[in-house]
Write a structure and sequence with these properties.
With about 280 residues, the chain is an alpha/beta fold. The protein contains 10 helices and 8 strands. The chain has a 6-stranded parallel beta sheet. A two-stranded antiparallel sheet has the order 2-3. Helix 1 crosses helix 2 and helix 2 packs parallel to helix 3. The longest helix has 16 residues.
Length: about 280
């Protein structure tokens, strides 16, 4: 797999994200994007490239221009990218599918509208459902849903709603990360101002780097507690919810069959270790 970056910044203002901090979105022109894809395909024999942009589908006309150039060059390389539910429609999905799009990741975050509003996601749950359905009805593009557990103000009921929401969608993969207040994000600044967050900076100015290992979205793979948990929730409960979410989504007959089909023999024991650590 190869990767490219075709833009910087993001037009949205999600409270947990640092991408938009002091940045106006900047985009490479379509020709440069397709030049890079062509280089990967023809010089490096790449069959797939992941576009690492925070939001690749943000500029609609730019995407159509990229698709037109992709066809003009006769490219066959497939690619994946991140999308926002507000930028998904049938015309766009048909265009990117015909121009090599293989998979899309959607930042769905939560199954609670109250939580979505609190982090300024800018969409309704009904829009998320419609976006996933539009992709699936108009293409065979693989869809990954990105969810966050343990956001500020979240309750046990909210987390269970998120798990239920993820399982109700016709998505191919789900990522359940623990809310991590990264420096530069609005929520980081808010939690620091409230004295709720250990930044690792001590009164004498020394930086305790041991704290940094707790700034991890996949705490289930680490032997440390999350750096922050919502009021009324313990670190062990949050860790348990993350594992429960993984079990609930992936240990369903349809998902088990899908993952078995993708499994390579040389990865068998690695996958078993991941399941043991991440699911239980």
């Amino acid at each position: 797999m190869k990767t490219i970056v075709t833009s910087r910044g993001c037009p949205y203002r999600c409270a947990f994200c640092v991408v938009h901090a002091n940045r106006k979105p900047r985009y490479d022109p379509p020709k440069k994007v397709v030049d890079e894809l062509e280089l990967l395909e023809k010089q490096y024999n790449a069959t797939y490239a992941y576009i690492e942009d925070s939001l690749f589908l943000a500029d609609r006309q730019r995407i159509f221009d990229i698709c037109d150039l992709y066809h003009e060059r006769g490219l066959t390389i497939r690619w994946g990218a991140q999308a926002h539910v507000r930028h998904v429609d049938a015309e766009l999905i048909n265009a990117i599918k015909s121009a090599g799009c293989f998979d899309l990741s959607l930042g769905l975050e939560s199954g609670s509208q109250r939580i979505l509003d609190s982090i300024h996601k800018g969409f309704k749950i009904e829009q998320a459902i419609k976006a996933v359905k539009t992709i699936k009805d108009n293409s065979d593009i693989s869809v990954s849903g990105l969810f966050i557990l343990g956001l500020p103000g979240e309750t046990h009921q909210d987390i269970m709603a998120t798990i239920k929401f993820a399982c109700s969608l016709p998505i191919d993969f789900a990522q359940f990360s623990i809310f991590t207040p990264y420096p530069g994000s609005p929520l980081f600044d808010k939690l620091v101002a409230n004295g709720e967050l250990d930044t690792g900076i001590r009164p004498n100015g020394r930086v305790d780097t041991s704290v940094w290992t707790r700034y991890a979205q996949y705490i289930m793979f680490k032997d440390v507690d999350p750096i922050w948990t919502p009021e009324g929730m313990t670190p062990s409960q949050l860790r348990s919810y993350q594992k429960r979410a993984m079990r609930s989504f992936y240990l369903r007959p349809r998902q088990i069959l899908r993952q078995v089909k993708r499994l390579r023999y040389d990865n068998f024991w690695k996958v078993l270790r991941i399941i043991r650590r991440g699911f239980y």
